[in-house]
Specification:
The protein is mainly alpha-helical. The protein has helices spanning 2-35, 39-42, 57-65, 68-99, 103-115, 120-133, 140-165, 168-176, 181-210, 213-218, 227-231, 243-269. Helix content is 75%, strand content 0%. Helix 4 runs antiparallel to helix 9 and helix 9 packs antiparallel against helix 12 (243-269).
Length: 279
């Protein structure tokens, strides 16, 4: 009886997981289908999943109408820079907060969590004034600074958890063997933190790549606008969307995040015990 109950529970779990995956995949699959449909099928009263006459005209039109490559380059520069800078700042801070616990560390951790509750609208005016005084309005450098500040609290919170998961006994054992603090951090702690660092960098990258509001407010020159902002140009003044080119451009905009995750997902899930074995 218990075996049947266990099988039924497992089957229900798989069914729920399948339904959740379908729910997540539906918008992306519909986006791909729309991107390859000709204008006649887009206006059909009986839409289909698979285009009857697939075409690349939407992609050609999207590149002809908007500077997608330039916008993608701006987004890539901002996202990569924000991810790298965020990790470089958050990693040593997370180590100190995790290894030296106290009232100050607890207060900092609490502030990190509370800061995530602040809405964009509440922050945009003071950020705009600060960047204006620094002469960083309408510049990618100013936007990168904003992305780093916005991603840093959550990145720090993530890395603190990863550092605390690394047994302090490993560092103590390395110290007993004669390794100094720097050698211990580089040879023992850093390899164990690699999955966390990669995950944090990926979080900061995706956050910056998809961000729209800050880029819309802070960037005025069309040559400096990021990809999410340029995608809105496919929507007319009266709210009518150029659906085919918009779907094609949006599909291309999702590819970097998907490819990046596919390339590094093994680095995130694998190597969790790398460096834990003495050589």
């Amino acid at each position: 009886m218990s075996m049947r109950t266990g099988r039924a529970t497992r089957a229900g779990q798989y069914l729920a997981l399948t339904g959740y995956l379908v729910f997540l995949a539906f918008p992306f699959l519909w986006l791909i289908s729309t991107a390859f449909k000709p204008a006649r099928e887009l206006g059909s009263l009986h839409p289909t999943w698979i285009p009857r006459h697939p075409t690349l005209d939407n992609f050609r039109q999207a590149f002809d109408e908007q500077p997608l490559l330039q916008a993608a380059g701006n987004s890539l520069l901002a996202a990569v820079s924000a991810g790298v800078i965020c990790v470089l700042i958050a990693t040593p801070m997370a180590y100190v907060m995790a290894r030296h616990r106290g009232k100050l560390s607890a207060a900092a951790t609490g502030w990190v969590v509370v800061s995530q509750a602040f809405p964009f609208v509440l922050l945009i005016i003071p950020l705009f004034l600060i960047l204006k005084n620094l002469h960083l309005i309408n510049s990618l450098a100013g936007l990168i600074m904003v992305y780093v500040v916005w991603s840093l609290p959550f990145a720090l919170w993530m890395l603190v958890g990863y550092v605390r998961a690394v047994p302090a006994e490993l560092e103590e054992a390395a110290s007993v063997d004669g390794a100094g603090r720097l050698r211990t951090l580089v040879s023992v702690t850093a390899p164990l933190l690699t999955p966390g660092i990669v995950a944090t960098a990926l979080f900061a990258f995706i956050t910056a790549w998809n961000e729209f509001f800050f880029a819309l407010v802070l960037l005025k020159t069309p040559e400096k606008q990021t990809l999410p902002v340029v995608l809105t140009h496919f929507i007319g003044a009266e709210g009518a969307a150029d659906l085919g080119p918009l779907a094609a451009a949006a599909f291309l905009a999702t590819l970097p995040s998907l490819l990046l995750f596919a390339l590094i997902q093994r680095r995130i899930t694998g190597g969790m015990l790398a460096g834990a074995v003495k050589s």
